Amino acid sequence: MSGLLVAGTTSDAGKSVVTTALCRAFARRGLRVAPYKAQNMSNNSMVCRGRDGVTAEIGRAQWVQAVAARAVPEPEMNPVLLKPGTDRRSHVVLMGQPAGDVSSADWETGRRHLAEAAHAAFDDLAARYDVVVAEGAGSPAEINLRAGDYVNMGLARHARLPVVVVGDIDRGGVFASMYGTVGLLEPADQALVAGFVVNKFRGDAGLLRPGLEDLERLTGRRVFGVLPWDPGLWLDSEDALDLEGRRARGDAVRRVAVVRLPRVSNFTDVDALGLEPDLDVVFASGPRDLSDADLVVLPGTRSTLADLAWLRSRGLDRAVVEHARRGRPVLGICGGFQMLGRVVADPDGVEAEPGARAEGLGLLDVRTDFAVEKTLRLPEGSALGAPASGYEIHHGRITVGDGAVEFLGGARAGNVFGTMWHGSLEGDAFRRAFLAETLGCAPSGVRFAAAREGRIEGLADLAEKHLDVDALAGLARDGAPGALPVLAPGGVR
């Protein structure tokens, strides 16, 4: 069994970035590579097909990592996906299919079957690929959760995986967090931690070297490299921690305001707009943020009714309606589209209390009724004279009235557009047609798939230059070095 676990000192330390980079770097060496994350907690997901041909839902990050690995995305690469609905309860997607809910109250006992399924999925991938690059979640040093952990050290112990810990130096305190991560682990877990990767370094590498040498001396573990800060290499993300970092730069002449819903999902739908040189894409939280926008986008949400109530509490509902009445375009995607309709109802309590119902913004003659069965589709079609495609992930059932016309699984009325197809703007032909129709933009020549591939290649180039990729490949092949020291306060014991 050949594999490697990329863990992190914190959430958003750079685990996804390093995992993606290693997937491409290992694939360049002729290895058959599979990405893996036992459990995601994210509302940013993607639809793929299992080996049986059935559509399945996985985390967006693992889908992108599969692209980086030159592998076909499949549910085994992210067997457990938790989609937060509230602060204490998450919807469970198991092997790509809905599997009820889990709450913080039953965090350990309610996840035992998830651990079994996750480890079985890893074993399946390991039997079919040369190497599995696994990404951890949060920090492996969450000692209050260790007993039920199957994502970090629980996975490493299951598969005897060597572990590399990534730390974000841009946050500060990286040496303490790396040392402390190892030091808090029990000896059997420490024995699998082989070393470290520093992420997001800015400045003179010479100034960092004494600290790296001390870290290696104090821990008895190697630093495999230091990745520099490079804001141009962002990738599709699995969470919304850095939405502001996705803002477009340059000499943009038209402003796109994306409403930052509290439970936003699949916000990568607007990534393609951010690549357009004539557009400045910003995230908006108040009515003033929409006042000078040329296009307003209501993105997807994990909880349409709750976020619709939030929209009203901030006065954003009136701002969106006023924007449309001034003749400016509005685009709603999935849950955001549902908000633009007349009524949103949840008779069975799929996202809210049973029988919950709310009036929408009334910009589209559409009614939404939530159903227990989830729709997972990879649709294709056309709109605005261009071919279009995307993916659907929703419980909402849409009824379009006479006052609107069909539009990509949704509806359109004048300058108001609503679609159930996530990812449709990633299609270059459709995006050009939509921007010409709504903003009068001339074709820019941007190719989204090529841009993503360029980012992946650039990230792998960065890893090849600044990390010892061959040593990491050897680590994945041979396992953690034997007799690694156990840390105690003050250094190696």
From TrEMBL:
NCBIfam families: cobQ, PRK00784.1. Catalyzes amidations at positions B, D, E, and G on adenosylcobyrinic A,C-diamide. NH(2) groups are provided by glutamine, and one molecule of ATP is hydrogenolyzed for each amidation. It holds the Pfam family GATase_3. Residues 5-233 form the CobQ/CobB/MinD/ParA nucleotide binding domain. Gene3D superfamilies: 3.40.50.880, P-loop containing nucleotide triphosphate hydrolases. Residues 255-429 form the CobB/CobQ-like glutamine amidotransferase domain. The active site is at residues 334, 422. The lineage of its organism: Bacteria, Bacillati, Actinomycetota, Actinomycetes, Kitasatosporales. The keyword Lipid biosynthesis does not apply. This is Cobyric acid synthase. Pathway: Cofactor biosynthesis; adenosylcobalamin biosynthesis. PANTHER family: COBYRIC ACID SYNTHASE, DETHIOBIOTIN SYNTHETASE. The keyword Cell membrane does not apply. Belongs to the CobB/CobQ family. CobQ subfamily. Keywords: Cobalamin biosynthesis, Glutamine amidotransferase.
